[in-house]
Task: structure prediction
Amino acid sequence: MASIQTTPGGMPVLILKDGAKETKGREAQKNNLTAAKLIAEIVKTSLGPRGMDKMLVDNLGDVTITNDGATILKEIDVQHPAAKMMVEVAKSVDNEVGDGTTSSVVFAGALLERAEELLSKDVHPSVIVDGYNAAAEHALKLLEKIAVQVEVSDKDMLLKIARTSMDSKLVSDDSPLLGAIVVDATKQVAEKADRGLKVDLDDIKVEKKAGGSMHDTKLIKGIVLDKEIVHAGMPKRIENAKIAIINSALEIEKTEMSAEIRISDPQQMQMFLEEENRMLRSMVDKIKGSGANVVLCQKGIDDIAQHYLAKAGVLAVRRVKESDMTKMSRATGARIVNNLDDLTAKDLGAANLVEERKVETDKWVFVEGCKNPKSVTILVRGGSQRVVDEADRSLHDALMVMKDVLEKPAIVAGGGAPEAYVANELRQWASSQEGRAQLAVQKFADALDAIPLNLAENAGMDPIDTMTELRAKQSKGAKWTGVDARNTVVADMYKQNVLEPLAVKQQIIKSATEVASMILRIDDVIASGKSRMPAGPPGGMGGMGGMGGMGME
Ligand code: ADP
Ligand code: MG
Result:
């Protein structure tokens, strides 16, 4: 369909290329809302501790089993533009705060569903968007008001928060152990900043290996390298290690150009080799001279240099990743040395023990027992690859949550309590709003109820009874009343130790409102005629043909 418009003078102007498709107004809006709500529909059964897991199969047949909203959406191949926007919300929440991805998509879906009700009553989208934004702003303030400040030194409290984020995961049975590891790891790497603490999660290395059991998962005060010691003659274990971290190659540099050396006499050959030998030896002498007994090198180590290092009783690892070099430096206190000539005793780092150990079929080098390391490793073990993968994802959420609270030490209870509280308050506040915006605020409040409602539904509780009881208790001022999905009762979630960072709850509201507004504002979808994607199955969500399936024609 080429779109032809005419100028006042009657000249035809071709605006869209041949083959481009355009849907306008109601039709475009309906398609977008349908696609976006579908995404929310997919993830909502996985919300909360009683949520179901998803088995995702990619086109190579690889299987991922997860309950993590961001992961589910990352793995499914979404093509409708509005559906993609919903996937983006999960991503942005994941990046900002790390937890609450499912909630943000479920809430955004609910906002759109409620908006549809208003649209059908001819409320203009911009009125809805304004009402939603006003409601969101007020909701953020309400959350701030009820949030409880925590002491970052209160380990017990931190553990409860870490455990809550893992409560809704496959690994929840192991949350006492994993939670404690998360708390210790983040506290270890946290650094003082202008206001409070600053945590850089790059300082926490997560190494995983299928095998053993989850109980073997541990925090290592140092760094684990998935590399072997470079030479069989070197010691496999060094106590009181003095570690040199070297950025340059322990090899004779090859010239850039291809050079040719003509040797006419065996004597010359001998001299040539001896010179090479001498240079490598002097490199090793410099290392020995600094007092180092462990060398970690980002580049290669020549065979002859390896031999001399082994003879000197030095343990060496080569081709260490750049990211590991930085972590190693932060863990051991060593300075990364670019030029061997600069290496002195002052540049060396320290660790109680450096040892090569067998982890299943691999040999890994453990650098551990560092004094006050600013970088640590979590070694994740578990029955199978799928289990360690999901543990890794759950640890990510929990680590992010810890970072959130350490940097902004304020929490709220979970289990849908804060959502129910804010919904209740917003319903009363709505009357202060003018005209039709009031309706939008009411709908925003109703949409918030989707969180406790889905928690209850996923736990097999009666949705109507639960919501009635929840609202009744909330309106009596019991602000932490929520859905205890484990015991399938309505309860005080603060007392149940289900605690979450304020930052997560606020981000869910911000991101979901943002995407819902964005989708509601679209009244025109123009798809270029050229299809970049192969056409999807008829009626499916594949390619632009998929938009036809969503009722585009
Ligand atoms: P998200 O990706 O949004 O974090 P989750 O599946 O992790 O989704 O579920 C989080 C929700 O589950 C939050 O609202 C949280 O308060 C709630 N929750 C966690 N533990 C419990 C519990 N024991 N009882 C009830 N709700 C819980
Ligand atoms: Mg979660």
